[in-house]
Amino acid sequence: MVKICCIGAGYVGGPTMAVIALKCPKIEVAVVDISVSRIAAWNGDQLPIYEPGLEDVVKQCRGRNLFFSTDIENHVAEADIVFVSVNTPTKTQGLGAGKAADLTYWESAARMIADVSKSNKIVVEKSTVPVKTAEAIEKILTHNSREIKYQILSNPEFLAEGTAIQDLFNPDRVLIGGRETPEGQKAIQALKDVYAHWVPEDRIITTNLWSAELSKLAANAFLAQRISSVNAMSALCEATGADVTQVSHAIGKDTRIGPRFLNSSVGFGGSCFQKDILNLVYICECNGLTEVANYWKQVIKVNDYQKNRFVNRIVSSMFNTVSGKKIAILGFAFKKDTGDTRETPAIDVCKGLLGDKAKLSIYDPQVTEDQIQRDLSMKKFDWDHPIHLQPMSPPASKQVNVVWDAYQAAKDAHGVCILTEWDEFKTLDYQKIFDNMRKPAYIFDGRNILDVAKLREIGFIVYSIGKPLDPWHKDTLAVA
Ligand code: NAD
Ligand code: UDX
Questions:
Q1: For residue 334, with 0-12 CB atoms within 10 Å meaning exposed, 13-18 middle and 19 or more buried, which class applies?
Q2: Fewer C-beta within 10 Å: the chain N or C terminus?
Q3: Would you state the pLDDT for residue 65?
């Protein structure tokens, strides 16, 4: 029986290993983590992450061939294949701060593997890492072990949150990079055999190590670049009277462009896009490729511009001040169907409004008050360091009120902002919301999910990203 151990029981380690355990009943899978509370949650009724379909998969194999544990050393020692799926955040201090990946957690996992191993192992990079990380890991392992042989593979994960289980069941591709030696090829085959339980062979791609590592950063950069491109167009649409939804539809019909990932929004969020592009930029700079670095930097600049533009639009349309005004924030997660708030655009929008002294009433169906207060009090990049796992509650801000109902959030508000595209926001009773708001009543749709014409009929002043502007907003442009 093959034994797999995965270090890191987070958004990637948990779901990925649960699906491997489900699809390969003869493989024993242990997921280990230093966070005692996270492992307890994986073993309890309330899983630590919200992901459609995940609970069902976990319930089918937990205790059968899927185990969650804090006994890291024993499980690593016993495993044939060790996945490393720890966080690789942006460095906050020292060389490369604000750009380079912080590999502290990766390195400590590698050193621990070297310390406890008693048999040969395949070590799989599941985390997203800079190109050439495999070489560094190889050095740590070989310089610290006696007689034991390691093969390092790069097997980056492409799942998206909110659709993780679907993505894992039916991946566009599985990518495995390894050494071009006979031992390296043997290790690739061993990992291929695991995925071959459910992934068609033509979707399992093999490459050399550096191509696999770089492909992950490249895929995220390309995806984020599409969003920044469409968001840049949204600003031009507002200036010209074009409608970004129509433009996206028209260009997406070109099969060379394709229709997906062309939704204009208040900005992309999530733990990956910004972090991985910054990492790519840093690698380009280290290799003297300034123009290439600047090209990718622009994707992030446009994303920041989009978030700022949204805040400025709100403030300028409300007579250039939101001081003391109540603004309802509907949606705080970085996208629908997840409770994850890492790098959510809601943080920047809320901080922008708080900076102008607004009072916020926030509702998200999956995000707790504690999480929201923590996010709004945390410094940039601090969220992805293990401190975020500690249950520390910051003092609640007097300007921020978190509620459990969209209608309550909007009651007596001057404006409503849609920041996450949760389905339930499409079917709210907007007449009821309008009746209970201060007038003029504003709606700012940062996800383009609402029927603008209907809202205008009710009496709202509506701003929807990249859509033709109300005369009201055109008039206030001069003020902005
Ligand atoms: P996460 O923060 O949810 O999980 C990482 C876990 O690793 C944490 O629970 C942490 O306690 C644990 N950990 C850290 N150091 C450890 C150690 N030495 N020993 C044991 N456990 C340790 O992060 P995530 O979202 O699962 O991301 C993990 C990696 O996967 C990152 O490199 C990320 O870029 C990449 N990735 C993430 C996604 C995504 O959608 N979240 C998708 C693809 C790739
Ligand atoms: C992303 C990649 O899609 C995935 O392959 C990788 O493994 C991890 O990073 P994730 O961040 O979970 O996944 O979600 P994704 O669906 O890519 O959305 C990222 C952000 O872009 C969200 O804030 C989303 O709302 C935004 N987005 C997405 C848009 O603004 N417009 C779009 O058309 C698509």
A1: buried
A2: N
A3: 98
